Amino acid sequence: MEFLDRIGTALEKCEMSGMEDLVKSALADGVGADDLLNKALIPAMDRVGNRFEKGDLFLPELIVAAETMKAAVQILKPHLRGTELESSGKVIIGTAWKDLHDIGKHLIHLVLEGDGFEIVDLGTSVSPAKFLAAVGAHPDASVLAMSALLTTTMKHMGATIDALNAAGVREKIRVIVGGAPVTEEFAAEIGADAYAADANAAKLRIRQLCNKGQYLKR
Ligand code: B1M
Question: What is the pTM of this model?
Answer without folding.
Answer: 0.82
